[in-house]
Design goal:
The chain has helices at about 15-35, 45-60, 75-90, 100-110, 115-135, 145-150, 175-185, 185-190, 205-210, 210-225, 230-235, 240-250, and strands spanning about 40, 65-70, 95, 140. The chain is of the alpha/beta class and about 270 residues long. It folds into two domains: about 10-200, HUPs (Rossmann fold), CATH 3.40.50.620; about 210-260. It has a four-stranded parallel beta sheet, with helices on both faces.
Length: about 270
Amino acid sequence: MTMPAEPRAEVFQLDPDKVIPRLTSFISEEVAKAGRKRVVLGMSGGVDSSLVAHLAALALGPSNVYALLLPFRTSSQESLAHARLEIDKLGIPHRVIEITPIAETLFRQLPSMDRRRMGNAMARLRMIVLYDQSEEHEALVIGTSNKTEMLLGYGTLHGDTAWALNPIGDLYKTQVRQLARAVGVDEVIINKVPTADLWAGQTDEGEIGLTYDMIDRVLYLLFDRGLAPAEIAALGYPQEAIGRVVGMVAASEFKRRLAPVAKLEN
């Protein structure tokens, strides 16, 4: 598919000399506000968590970044190897905790679970471990979800969308890759097909049905430029792609706001 001319790729370009200090300051300030010195994060072997690990190490020092690898029995060995690659490069402490025994105990109790429910359960189990380890190490859980995922609702509520602070939540996936390259994340991680590793062969773009390049452009036109879907279509974007993005954003609005609480009148 030929990509429409607008928006130009330049609009996604970041100045690492400005952005990196801003994000590392954010991390150090938020951790200090909470009276903590450390962060814990789940390292998946993907570009998002790799970038966050680099930013946190720059902000707090490598010894104050605790990485957890939380594989299920079907998790990609390549992803685990990529996570270790960045852990070794940064020299940050880490631990591997298998979630397979915990998850399979739950799955046996709920045999009707399909693979999507199982993926959501595993994301939440991983966050249980992260928050437990944050307590043990007197640390904060640092988030690894980007702006694209958050706007699409492409994440598990109370799973990978749970955190105490998130330094990359205002970066589109396109920009995450740029910044990852600037901080020194390995090219094999930056260039590989994104996957949440929820089941064998699962990829983000395959599940969504669109490339991140297309998604980011449509999201940018919707939210940064304030264009209506019809105006985006007039620029040459496929109606199907626009509808898919708009639909995902609308359907996931509940994930981006605090759950409503009923108030009693005085």
